[in-house]
């Protein structure tokens, strides 16, 4: 133990008194401050670049501490060497690990039931880290057709420039996955709930085929959250989150997490994450952890409000169809009841009979909801996929994806459901 200026007190004794140098056993407020200045006789301008760290021995913070340091110092060179040994080593440099980031990784791995997790600077960072860590030229990937656009683009790029071959399949037919298998198939990439038409993927069926063939299954669980679905329970090897969405939940942070089902896979992907430099920033991890604490409350409200809104929309004359797995008419309703027994998520889509113009009027007329991309935050957001997130698709591809000219996606927030309906009903009245 050492005092504010780095003077060692005998072990077990607390330095006390006011701040006094250089021979006093002193701390500013009677608190122990260990690992402070190791060179107490240095000049002020040298001491000030080594501020002392308050010791929390004897109590513990209830908020997660923010370790906004990219660097950690050691007392012995052996300890530093040991720190390089793997994901469980001591913290030494943020690209390899950071205590705040590790708290997030441990929390999400725990929720998903994985052996470990890697937090990244964005959801796309997690997707790229996993794909690049596990694939090499000549490998074959089976991927869902209805993937998030960024993931679709990465796979197309891997195919174009790196010689990875990709076959796209639907999310509901294990036989289609079986038929797509090749001797070179390495990876199956799925999403629990598709965007924007909220189709639910037959995770047990599709992952089962991959498992029997020794193919790694990756599931993007962003839309479901680990509170509604845990793909590792169905045999998934990797679960990905854009924690930017529900896990963070407040539209204030960009972060991703890849959860690995077993320790060997964790170590392998961790090594590649270091090379890629995909690490999450501690402050982003801290904000995400803060959001994560209310995930259960938020998800319950998102699900209840989305179901309520879906039912009301389905009865409105301006609306042709509503896409929400909680509605009995949804093509995956039965599967959703099995896979998502605690709720069907906070995203829904609906088709306005008035087409593209009606969608424009609607999205520009809402007042409580906001016209914005992204999803999963506390605010309700509306979006016209055909002119934004899915604008790269032609009319035939849009139709194949179930997206019409009048399709509007809603990420339902946690506002009062009556206020939300008043806003939506008011906007519908204008279309
Ligand atoms: N996965 C899904 C399902 C998404 O919806 C998104 C973004 O919208 C991403 C991944 C990418 O996440 P990020 O924007 O955090 O990179």
Would you mind describing this structure in some detail?
The chain has 431 residues and is of the alpha/beta class. It has 2 domains: 12-292, Aspartate Aminotransferase, domain 2 (3-Layer(aba) Sandwich), CATH 3.40.640; 296-430, Aspartate Aminotransferase, domain 1. The chain contains 15 helices and 12 strands. The protein has helices at residues 44-47, 77-83, 99-112, 123-134, 149-162, 174-180, 203-212, 225-228, 263-276, 282-292, 295-314, 333-339, 355-365, 395-400, 417-429; strands spanning 116-120, 140-144, 165-169, 185-191, 216-220, 238-242, 256-260, 319-323, 347-352, 370-371, 381-383, 407-411. The strands form 2 sheets. Strands 1-7-6-5-4-2-3 form a 7-stranded mixed beta sheet, sandwiched between helices. The protein has a 5-stranded mixed beta sheet with strand order 8-9-12-11-10. Helix 3 packs across helix 10 (282-292), helix 6 packs parallel to helix 7 (203-212) and helix 13 (355-365) crosses helix 15. The chain is globular. The termini are far apart. The model is unreliable at 1-26 (pLDDT under 50). Pyridoxal-5'-phosphate binds next to helix 4.
Distance between the termini: 70 Å
Beta-strand percent range: 5-15%
* SSE series: HHHEHEHEHEHEHEEHHHEHEHEEHEH
Specify the helix fraction band.
25-40%
Bound molecules: pyridoxal-5'-phosphate
Classification by helices and strands? alpha/beta
Shape: globular
Radius of gyration: 25 Å
Weakly predicted, low-confidence segments:
1-26
The largest pleated sheet is described as: 7 strands, mixed
The CATH architecture term of the largest domain is 3-Layer(aba) Sandwich
Count of discrete alpha- or pi-helical segments spanning 4 or more residues: 15
CATH superfamily of the largest domain: Type I PLP-dependent aspartate aminotransferase-like (Major domain)
CATH class of the largest domain: Alpha Beta
Largest beta sheet: what is the strand line-up? 1-7-6-5-4-2-3
The count of domains is 2
């Amino acid at each position: 133990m050492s005092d504010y200026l780095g003077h060692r007190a005998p072990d077990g004794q607390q330095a006390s008194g006011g701040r006094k140098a250089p021979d006093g056993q002193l701390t500013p407020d009677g608190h122990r401050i260990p690992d402070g200045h190791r060179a107490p006789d240095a000049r002020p301008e040298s001491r000030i670049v080594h501020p002392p760290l308050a010791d929390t021995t004897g109590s513990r913070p209830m908020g997660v501490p923010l370790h906004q340091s990219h660097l950690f110092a050691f007392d012995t060179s052996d300890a530093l060497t040991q720190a390089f040994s793997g994901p469980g080593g001591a913290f030494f440099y943020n690209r390899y690990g950071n205590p705040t980031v590790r708290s997030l990784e441990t929390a999400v791995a725990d929720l998903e039931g994985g052996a470990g997790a890697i937090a990244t600077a964005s959801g796309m960072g997690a997707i790229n880290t996993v794909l690049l860590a596990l694939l090499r030229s000549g490998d074959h990937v089976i991927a869902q057709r209805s993937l998030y656009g960024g993931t679709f683009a990465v796979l197309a790029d891997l195919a174009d420039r790196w010689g990875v071959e990709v076959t796209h399949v639907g999310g509901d037919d294990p036989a289609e996955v079986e038929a797509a298998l090749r001797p070179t198939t390495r990876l199956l990439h799925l999403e629990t709930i598709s965007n924007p038409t909220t189709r639910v993927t037959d995770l047990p069926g599709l992952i089962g085929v991959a498992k029997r063939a020794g193919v790694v299954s990756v599931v993007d669980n962003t839309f479901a959250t680990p509170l509604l679905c845990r793909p590792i329970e169905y045999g998934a090897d990797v679960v990905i989150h854009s924690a930017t969405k529900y896990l963070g939940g407040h539209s204030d942070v960009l972060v991703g997490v890849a959860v690995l089902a077993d320790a060997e896979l964790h170590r392998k992907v961790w090594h590649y994450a270091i090379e890629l430099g995909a690490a999450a920033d501690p402050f982003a991890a801290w904000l995400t952890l803060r959001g994560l604490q209310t995930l259960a409350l938020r998800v319950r409200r998102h699900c209840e409000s989305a179901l309520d809104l879906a039912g009301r929309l389905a009865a409105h004359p301006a609306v042709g169809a509503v896409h929400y797995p909680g509605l009995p008419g949804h093509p995956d309703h039965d599967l959703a009841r099995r896979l998502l027994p605690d709720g069907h998520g906070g995203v829904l889509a609906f088709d306005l009979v008035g087409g593209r113009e009606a969608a424009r009027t609607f999205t520009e007329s809402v007042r409580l909801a906001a016209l914005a991309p992204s999803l999963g935050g506390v605010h309700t957001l509306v979006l016209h996929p055909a002119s934004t997130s899915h604008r790269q698709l032609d009319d035939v591809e849009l139709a194949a994806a179930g997206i019409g000219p009048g399709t509007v996606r809603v990420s339902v927030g946690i506002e009062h459901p009556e206020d939300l309906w008043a806003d939506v009903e008011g906007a519908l009245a204008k279309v």
